[in-house]
Amino acid sequence: MRPWMIVLALWLPFSVMADEAKPVAADPVLEQRMIKLSEDLRCLVCQNESLAGSRADLAQDLRQEIREQMSAGKSDKEVIDYLTQRYGDFVLYNPPVKPLTWLLWFGPFALLTGAVGGLYAYIKRRGNRPVDEPLSEEEKKRVAALLGNNGNKS
Amino acid sequence: MKRFLIPLGIFIVLVGFLGIGLKLDPREVPSPLIGKPAPDFKLGVLSDPAKQLSPADLRGKVWLFNVWASWCASCRQEHEVLLDLSKQGGVPIYGMDYKDQPGDAQAVLNRYGNPYVETVVDLDGRVGINYGVYGVPETYLIDKNGIIRYKHTGPVTRESLDKKILPLVKELQQ
């Protein structure tokens, strides 16, 4: 191989190197705020993806909507209210505490308390069981008989 | 004996929960808009872009609002059902062409038939967002006072018409 070919081969990848992706909004601070907010929101089309991470059409539209509302001076809370009014609490990855979600929020703690209580009761009951009671004369004789000697050496 | 009953009981409860979980459809997200006024819009009509339609024009009527698009495959599934319903004439169906090329939508209607009294065109999907649309097709039942009474996500089937939508329509038309 000739040296100029090596030089060409080494140079080639640089000539096709891609540009850095540019942020969509002109304002990077606003873009950051939008991404931070939409990380806590669910994309309704691909439900296990956040609104920030989804490439679904609706997610892009909603990100655009959030962007516009933010640049119009709306607070994060107002934007979230806007979305929950349309899509319900389901869009929130961090659902609010209210009677409907009590089971969700407190259920695990209730289960844990129940399990610890159960374990405690179980251990306590087992602790009361007489374990170290010595064998009675009758039992000693049976042991000796089963072991096959005359019972004097126990 | 009792020792085996406890894990068996826990197992049965668990199976019960899992069974219910299997029956639930995760795509079926309850709409917060039920019982609320249908979000307002003023959109051009597919057949005549100069003409505009708004929910206020339909006050006093019980109507179905069906969100569809030419690119939506499962919309073809419900098309037949909607055509039958429009022939029966029990309830007017208004369509909304969601994020679509009006030409493509018109072609679908020309080819498969048109169940809609009118179809409004939501080019950028803004009105769709206001209605909480997240998967086309979606169908809303709106009463005489412009209140959303029911939402059906996914293709309308004959079963869902007979069991849920039509009885509710009858009740609301009284």
Question: What does this protein structure show overall?
Answer:
The complex is a heterodimer of chains A (154) and B (174). In chain A, 58% of the residues lie in helices and 0% in strands. With 154 residues, chain A is mainly α. Among the domains of chain A are: 23-91, Helicase, Ruva Protein, domain 3 (Orthogonal Bundle); 97-129. In chain A, helix 2 packs across helix 3 (57-71). Chain A is elongated. Chain B is of the alpha/beta class and 174 residues long. Chain B has a single domain, classed as Glutaredoxin (3-Layer(aba) Sandwich). Helix content of chain B is 40%, strand content 18%. Chain B has five helices and seven strands; from the N terminus they run H-E-E-E-H-E-H-E-H-E-E-H. Chain B has helices at residues 2-23, 73-88, 102-112, 126-130, 158-173; strands spanning 43-44, 52-53, 63-68, 93-98, 118-122, 138-142, 148-153. In chain B, helix 3 (102-112) links the parallel strand 4 and strand 5. The longest helix of chain B has 22 residues, at 2-23. The radius of gyration of chain B is 20 Å and the shape is elongated. The model of chain B has no long low-confidence stretch (mean pLDDT 92).
Q: According to CATH, what is the class of chain B?
A: Alpha Beta
Would you list the SSEs of chain B in sequence order as H and E?
Answer: HEEEHEHEHEEH
CATH architecture of chain B: 3-Layer(aba) Sandwich
Give me the number of helical elements of chain B. 5
Mean pLDDT, all residues of chain A: 83
Rg from Cα of chain A: 35 Å
- Kindly identify the CATH topology of the domain at 23-91 in chain A: Helicase, Ruva Protein, domain 3
The CATH homologous superfamily name of chain B equals Glutaredoxin
Q: What integer value in Å does the Rg of chain B equal?
A: 20 Å
> Helical region count of chain A?
6
Instruction: Spell out the helices and strands of chain A N to C.
Output: HHHHHH
Instruction: Please indicate the percent range of residues of chain B in DSSP E strands (runs of 2 or more).
Output: 15-25%
